[in-house]
Design brief:
about 80 residues, alpha/beta, Rossmann fold, 4-stranded parallel beta sheet, 3 helices, 4 strands
């Protein structure tokens, strides 16, 4: 089973590049383009790691991280 990474990034070109490179390295990558979508994807996909953009429209990366932690999410989050 491939390790699962959730990438939350609002810049589409950057997200595609990171998704492609991590895919080549053998990771199962899910991309969310904003904070709210990232929260839902974290719940739905149960990733092993989250790569989280700091500044996004709507919910910031810090707020997404806070909300994840308040729900008991313990996996690593990289901002």
């Amino acid at each position: 089973m491939k390790p699962k990474i959730l990438l939350v990034e609002d810049e589409e070109k950057l997200a595609k590049f990171i998704e492609m490179e991590l895919g080549y390295e053998g990771y199962d990558v899910t991309v969310a383009n904003d904070g709210l979508s990232g929260l839902m994807a974290a719940r739905d996909t149960e990733p092993d790691l989250i790569l989280l953009d700091w500044m996004m429209p709507g919910l910031s990366g810090v707020e997404v991280c806070r909300r994840l932690r308040s729900t008991g999410f313990k996996e690593p989050v990289v901002l």
